[in-house]
Structures are given as structure tokens and as C-alpha cells.
Amino acid sequence: MEHAIVLFDGDCNFCDSSVQFIINHDPAGYYHFASLQSDVGRELRKEHQIPDDVDSLVLIENGQAYIKSEGALRISHHLTGLWKLAFYLKSVPRFIRDGAYDTFARNRYKVFGKLNSCMLPPPHIRKRFLDK
């Protein structure tokens, strides 16, 4: 099976919770993960020419990088349950979706705070993290 990679802000509580959510709704293990701040994350950012101001979530799938609402909605497409339906929010114009995404991302530290430590996933989940 092909895998997609989710790059996330390793300092953000909300991003950490989002990774946990994806893991819980991705029993097939389609998504692998790396923090944006890790060596792997920096290498992937460079390889896919992801701008430095992108600091929240990036999806790399089939050799293509997706940022902001496009990345988040594409992630939902492979999740179990009703979360798949979020993918259809793509019909909302991108400037509206990305405007909402940017507002949320800009305020995520104020609302959810920063991490003081990272959770240590069990071994069967840990293998999905690229920045060991």
C-alpha cells in the first residue's frame, strides 16, 4: 500500500491532537508522520518546495504537497467513518476555506497552547513516525 505523509507542527497541542485523531481514524496506517521541525520534515519541505511560512499542516501524497485546507480535506478522505464526508467541503471556494484555516492556524497557540513534551506512542504506532 502507498503511504502519505502528514507534516505537523511538533510544538502545537492542537496539531498533536490532530495527529492522534488521524491515527485513531486510520486503522489501515495510510498516513505516516513527521514534525515540520525535524530533520525529515525540513528535508521534505525542501524537496517539495514548501514555503517557510507554512507552519501548521502539510500533506504529501503521490509526490505532491498540499497545504492549508486542501491538505486537511484530503486527509479526511482516507479516514474512517463520517469524517470522509469532510472531503466534500472542497466545493467551498479555496479563498474562503484557506481564510478560515489561516485564522485558526494563527490563533492555535493562544487557544490550545504549546507542548511541553511529546507523547510516546506504542511500538505499532511509532513505526509510522518518520522522525524517530
Kindly describe this structure:
This protein is of the alpha+beta class and 132 residues long. It is 40% helix and 14% strand. The chain has 5 helices and 4 strands. A 4-stranded mixed β-sheet has the order 2-1-3-4, with helices on one face. The model has no long low-confidence stretch (mean pLDDT 86).
Quote the average pLDDT.
Answer: 86
Backbone structural class: alpha+beta
**Alpha-carbon distance between the two ends:** 22 Å
Mind describing the biggest β-sheet? Answer: 4 strands, mixed
Find the count of extended strands (DSSP E, 2+ residues): 4
Strand content: 5-15%
Are there runs of 5+ residues with pLDDT below 50, and where? Answer: none
Shape: globular
Determine the number of helices (DSSP H or I, runs of at least 4 residues): 5
- Fraction of helical residues: 40-55%
CA-atom Rg in angstroms? 14 Å
The strands making up the biggest β-sheet line up spatially as 2-1-3-4
List SSEs in N-to-C order: EHEHEEHHH
